[in-house]
Prior knowledge:
- This protein is mainly α.
- It has 13 helices and no strands.
Amino acid sequence: MPVRYVLQRLGSFVLIVWAAATINFAVPRLANVDPVREQMLQAVAVGGASSQSMDDVVKSYEKRFGLDQPLWRQYVRYLWAMIRFDFGVSITRFPTGVNNMIVGALPWTMVLVTVSTLMAFAIGSLFGALLAWPRAPKFIHFLAPPLLTLSAIPYYLLGLTLIYFLAFRWRAFPLGGGYDIGTEPGWSVDFIRQAVRHSILPALSIILASIGFWALGMRAMMVTVQGEDYVTLAEAKGLTPRRIFLRYALRNAILPQTTALALALGQVASGAVLVEVVFGYPGVGNLLYQSIRTFDYTVIYGLTFLVIVAIGVATLLLDLLLPRLDPRITYHRR
């Protein structure tokens, strides 16, 4: 691969991350809400603070978080902090560090969304390939309508349905959370068992809602591949249907799916926000939702910047690895 192309892609990556980070800085301020004053008003409402001293406390906290400085100075400080991945402390949970909050929530999301996405990709791609294959078992076509119907249902609505039937009515799974109430998180066998049990319903809602998406894309590619000359040649040579399906059709049709998978995995850091909110799952999506509700700028900055970098890195790696995955792709000038 040309060094010039690699440098161009790295330059594009840096430019995209900077532009997205700038938008990330500007968007929360469009709400024209003072997060410190909002927190103090809530404290006064529940009797946790005095309204006379509120202005002094607000000024003190604004100075602590740099919100009293000019906007350009806040922007420069923000960029320098983002470069160092120093997201500061939470406004609503002061003095808890944003980095500590993200580190505590990220493993839950990484495991849940990564495993769910990979399972949905594997099942959906194989299912879509079999839908387009003429020699596929007949029962595959009977499974298509319900699975494709589920793909039209949003994650959170499917999650609410699963909660009602499997958790509320049949009590087969917990109603929500990441583990049982009163349990201390750790690496014990009992805690891991609880975490797995609590993650089944959120993962199931993501998988069922995603299988149809992967299946439709794979089916379209399989239909295209079956008309290629190399598949016709393989059939003329008398190769077994199984080998033609796996080595010639599926192997070539899955390349565009791999591209979509890389982009989907790049968004793992953002989590399945509404799914985590519905199930009360202690992941990044739920943390982002709570931060938006309370106008916690520092947490919003940290989480969205993390998502920006994750998607940018996934796209960059995809650009660099595509020629390795498909020899037909080349960046050399002809």
